[in-house]
């Protein structure tokens, strides 16, 4: 099991090369609501090319959980200055703690060092950002 935070239980399946996330009932991730959670997955796939997949539904005594998966990304967590530099290079503006707005008014949140992976080549891969608003983007 991997560290999953408040929203998910997280598991890595080596054979598939994917990380599986199971929402913690009775809520669906940070949004609490199924519709908003699924919309965020769709938006993240469109914006960040996350390749998140809906894998299934689990009924539990305390509620329903969704199971999603995404590819395992090998790298390291960035430092706060590296994260700030990455958003700055994209001309993003900090709106608050872990919240950024892109020039096209796309707004992301939960953008802390545990939700991005820094690759050896210096690129940064978002793995669990929340899209609060698409701004002027079309998906």
Describe this protein with a few key phrases.
139 residues, alpha+beta, 2 domains, 4-stranded antiparallel sheet, 18% helix
Notes on the protein architecture:
- With about 140 residues, this protein is of the alpha+beta class.
- It folds into two domains: about 10-70; about 80-135, no CATH class.
- Helix content is about 20%, strand content about 35%.
- A four-stranded antiparallel beta sheet has the order 1-2-4-3, with no helix packed on it. It has a four-stranded antiparallel beta sheet with strand order 5-6-7-10. A two-stranded antiparallel sheet has the order 8-9.
- The radius of gyration is 15 Å and the shape is globular.
- The model has no long low-confidence stretch (mean pLDDT about 90).
Give the oligomer, counting copies of the same chain as homo and different chains as hetero: single chain
| Total tally of structural domains | 2
Q: Let me know the largest β-sheet.
A: 4 strands, antiparallel
Number of helices: 2
- Taking the alpha carbons of the first and last residues, their distance comes to 33 Å
What is the H-and-E element order? Answer: EEHEEHEEEEEE
Which helices and strands, and how do they pair?
Elements: E1 8-13, E2 18-23, H1 34-48, E3 53-60, E4 63-71, H2 80-89, E5 93-96, E6 99-101, E7 107-109, E8 116-118, E9 124-126, E10 130-133
Antiparallel strand pairs: 1-2, 2-4, 3-4, 5-6, 6-7, 7-10, 8-9
């Amino acid at each position: 099991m991997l560290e999953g935070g408040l929203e998910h239980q997280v598991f890595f399946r080596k054979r598939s090369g994917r990380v599986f996330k199971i929402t913690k009932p009775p809520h669906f991730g940070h949004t609490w609501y199924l519709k908003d959670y699924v919309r965020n997955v769709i938006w993240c796939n469109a914006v960040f090319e996350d390749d998140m997949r809906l894998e299934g539904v689990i009924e539990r005594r305390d509620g329903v959980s969704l199971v999603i998966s995404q590819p395992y990304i090998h790298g390291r967590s960035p430092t706060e200055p590296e994260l700030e530099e990455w958003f700055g290079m994209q001309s993003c503006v900090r709106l608050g703690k872990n919240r950024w707005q892109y020039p096209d008014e796309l707004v992301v949140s939960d953008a802390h060092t545990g939700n991005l992976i820094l690759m050896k080549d210096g690129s940064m891969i978002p793995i669990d950002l929340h899209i609060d608003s698409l701004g002027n983007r079309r998906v």
